[in-house]
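Before the break, one more example. Copy the sequence into your notebook; we will annotate it together after we see the structure.
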Amino acid sequence: MIEPGQLILLISHKGKRYLRKLETGGEVHTHDGKLLMDEVAEAGFGQYVKTHLGKPYLVLKPTLHDLIKGVKRQTQIMYPKEIGYLMMKLGIGPGSTVIESGTGSGGLTTALAWFVGDTGKVITYERRADFYKLAGKNLERVGLADRVVQVNRNIEEGFEHSGADALFLDVRTPWEYLHHIPAAVIPGAMCGFLLPTVNQVSDLLRGLEDGPFADLEVLEILVRRWKPVADRLRPEDRMVAHTGFLVFARYMEPPKAAPRPEPVEEAAEEPDDIGEDADTLE
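Here is what the structure looks like once it is written out:
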């Protein structure tokens, strides 16, 4: 039995997908007919329900991959192939606080909110009001909006928040905002960046090398799928190759200047024990 409010993924016999939130008494209208939410709830995950026209639909509990692929977008979103590595590299987990800039349609924001759990928080900045509103709707749709603080502003003047465990910038010129990072994160925090071209990466590296950052890493992640046919196993004709460069660096708080030692006064010389009466020992 599926509880009201849970997300469900409905897949038709032709592979058409419908991501919905289960509502008591609700309906889902498809090209194959109408699905009743009460029948979906009673069937449960991993089972089939039929439309009023008799077409079967598989009921599944959506994964994070399903949620991200189902994001309604007006911008390019980050691909799952980058997101997995990014989460591990930034150390995102339950209870983490992470700052993001460049919300876009909210694909990465959705993943961050998934990983920080109910005890964590995602603070995401977006300068464009239309993207800000779209991301908010996408987060509400998948039930993760309560884990996210959205800020509709440019980060030129810095971040409103501080003490984050990690930070990620998906902006065109991240090197222009590096000086704002120390006030936003804790010492030792991992910072990540996404850039499409090598000249942007070079500009960013120059900025990182001149600042309080260490452990620099640059990479791209390529995915080549294979046709899952046991007797004719070979790669797919097409692959998801370059979608962006990932750059990582750790913010290192500059060492504090050691306090100057206090001058030590020289002790006065003690008189010898041997005085004028020393000749009496002879």
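The longest strand covers residues 185-195. The chain has six helices and 15 strands. Try to locate both features in your own notes.
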